[in-house]
Amino acid sequence: MLGIIEAAGWPIWLIIAASVTAVTIIIERLLTLRKSLVLPEGLLARAVQEYRSNGVTPEMLSKLSATSPLGRVLAAGLKNVKSSREIMKESIEEIGGAVAHDLERYLPALGTLATVTPLLGLFGTVIGMIEIFGAQSPTSGNNPALLAHGISVALYNTAFGIIVAVPALLFYRYFRSKVDGFIVEMEQQAVKLVEVVHGDRH
Known about the structure:
This protein is mainly alpha-helical. It has nine helices and no strands. Helix 8 runs antiparallel to helix 9 (144-197).
């Protein structure tokens, strides 16, 4: 493998750097975007129970915000519990935007890597082809076997680029779908909180 990488030329190191970055992002997002961390089970019910038992206190808001992204959204609503329904919803939407931005962290970079790595592979192949044909001398003639080997080595760049791009794109789509689902569920739970606080739901 190391021999192939060395033979493929310097452009393949750009693809390797892109692959390391993509793998790092994928692992980080897999660990971060777990439902148990983003939307803890029963958090809304516990928050409502605490609110009904002890009211809203700074300690309760701080503890709720620290639990999870959903906790931040619910805490924003409870912070304005004495305000009108509209103000409560606005505060939830403001924090919700920041939470959504945090959940989407690194996803644009992963999507960019999925798009760019095939182009880097093509770039490496073109550079390899230029070097191969530039090394051919009209006086010494062409060696078909050597030429074919050189072309196959140059094509490794394209292959590596595609190998990196496909999983990066798959995980990008997966994470985007997961984040969208989390945001919808958070919105639903925030609406339930507003309805409970303002007496529309028990």
